[in-house]
Amino acid sequence: MKLSTVSNYKDKGYINESSIFNELYSTLGITSVDTFEYREFNAPYLINSSYTHLIVAFDYKTTSLQLYTEFLKEITIPKVFIVDTIPEKHRELNKEFVDTFLPNFTEGYTGLTKQLQSIIYEDYGDAFVFFSEKDKSLFDKYYKVSKSKPRVVIPPPLGPEESIKANTVNTSGPLVYNGVPSYANGLVNVGDFLHRNNNLHMDMYGTHGRLDLNNEILVNDLLSNLDNFKFKARVRKDADIFNKYSVYLHLPKYDSFDYFCFKSILNGSIPVVSKNSTFYEYLAEYPFVCTSDPANIDYTFDILAKTSIETLNQVIKTQVDKLKELSNENTLKKYVNLIENL
Questions:
Q1: Does the domain at residues 165-325 carry the CATH identifier 3.40.1350.10?
Q2: Torsion-angle region of residue 173: left (phi > 0), alpha (psi -120 to 50) or beta?
Q3: Which of 39, 224, 242, 331 is spaced 20 to 30 A from 99 at the CA atom?
Q4: First and final CA of the chain: distance in angstroms?
């Protein structure tokens, strides 16, 4: 098995996706030499002659299929699509946001139609990997793709198994989030929570992501109306997120896999998470999980604040032990099993 990958994520500045794919490619033994872009028109010959399988990473923020179909139609080895999120779900949430908060705006969504997304999956995918059962289900809901094509859930790797262990919790410092400050990632819920609890402070790191204008509007609104919220752009060192902060606050309407939410529980920052997050799919018994109801969010945070340090450390250790499934070693085994059966 010798793998290569093609991607249109280069230089996009995404945070979550970059961290996920960097760890995944390292786990699968894919180096920079094995990584190609869709604009490299001579690459298919090299891929077909030098590799056994192609891992396809496809950012849905595009309006035309031609560049991608011209490349993929030349590939003769099996192609495994990493479906890292569900575009049509983002389209729905974008419309919900615009209809609710910007009724005089047009939708402003940049992405392929549902029909074109189905075409690229059906015509060029030999197998599909999802980060959650939720996304696997949504994929079948929205896209018309042959049921004979394998679909498997393989979560992103969090690191070597020996590194997946709990650190002592940090109970001092403000709240934090690292990623895209979007409606889908619950920024409205976060803003409402901070408005109700103005004794708490939160720093948010990230970039504006795919929906640049909408996300900028959201961030600017929070900065204008909340003295206890700061947006600090891209974090310089990932470790800073965990060393300086006590709580990782993630209240999404939808996510596929918030990498830093999982990393936070490994590194001493305690997640407070919405049940809409994939985090809840992997840690269903985690206690500091809430609905989108404001009273339930406040109640969950109050329970956390009243929990002793000793209990917190025991809770985190118990939950982290369950994340061994997301080790690099287990991820590799699952990919090998998928690929060997194509």
A1: no
A2: left
A3: 224
A4: 12
CB 91 within 8 A of CB 141: no
Beta bridge partners of 282: none
**pTM of the predicted model as reported, rounded to 2 decimal places:** 0.94
76-107 pLDDT, tens digit each: 999 999 999 999 999 999 999 999 988 877 66
> Can you list the pairs that 113-117 forms with residues at least 24 positions away whose Cβ atoms lie under 8 Å?
114/88, 114/142, 114/143, 116/65, 117/60, 117/87, 117/88, 117/142, 117/143
Question: Residue 209: in which H helix or E strand, if any?
Answer: none
The tokens for 331 are 């991820």
User: Which architecture, in CATH terms, is 3-159+327-340?
Assistant: 3-Layer(aba) Sandwich (3.40)
Based on its alpha-carbon atoms, the radius of gyration of the chain, rounded to whole angstroms, reads: 20
Non-local CB neighbours of 271 within 8 Å, separated by 6+ positions: 247, 248, 249, 250, 261, 264, 265, 279, 286, 288
The pair phi, psi for residue 205, each rounded to 5°, is: -110, 155
Six-digit token pair at 83?
Answer: 């479906």
Domain boundaries along the sequence of the chain: 3-159+327-340, 165-325
Q: Output the six-digit token pair for 125.
A: 């995918």
